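Pilot study result, target chain (277 residues):
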Amino acid sequence: MSLLHALVLGIVQGLTEFLPVSSSGHLQLVPWVFDWNDFEDNPELANAFDVALHIGTLVGACAYFARDIMRYGRAGLSTLTKAGRTRPLSADARIAWLLVVATIPAGITGVALESVLATDDHIWVTAVALMVFGVGLAAADRLRGDRTTDDFSLADAALMGLGQALALQPGVSRSGITMTVARMRSFDRPAAARLSFLMSLPIIAGAGVYKFLDIGGIDGVPADMRGAFAVGMAAAAITGWLAVWGLLRLVARISFDGFAIYRVVAGLAVLAMLGFG
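Predicted structure:
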């Protein structure tokens, strides 16, 4: 794998993991469009590179949300102590455990359907998912919402978690579907985006650890590929941080229409390419 390919895919992963446009869909489409065959007949190595990019993205997001992670993590863990169990549940502790609950549907689905998802590479399905769920995001964004992060409830966690499970299909978009559900649940845009990002961290971390162990750790990466893997991870980390930073500042002032339009145009372009060979 060339360093250029690794750099491009790292940037794609970092930007699209948190923008509501589907990172898995773009990581599938970009090599397809440019006819890159870096991992042809080597799905294990492709899986290892996917792990590397997700770990990079996780590092970037954790760097941005370091204060939130410390805040909610400390509050959630305090409830496990003897003294914490006797005190009323604080707002931060409640949100911490609800974020954990929200990861359960995707975790179960990912493990149960791992073999199916690994072989599902139908480009047309990804294109259709981009369009359909892009329109859904735009429609939900037109609903009025004034709920904030502090209003996060068990029902919200369960429904957003189910949405996150759907995002295992490339083209759906984890951030896109969770923001869609949040807007349908009357959260304002900043709260929808922040909750979407925070609830993605445990699932990205869990999936990364699971896949890393599955490929045999660092020994599963050939020595001549480690430079490309490092470049991809670094690019994903930096652009992931930038994507979170940028979107959280934009959503207070703009709608999600631009992302929806992009998704529909991209989906139509892919279908046209398939149709015309």
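One observation from the pilot: The chain has one domain: 3-275. A full batch analysis is planned for the follow-on phase.
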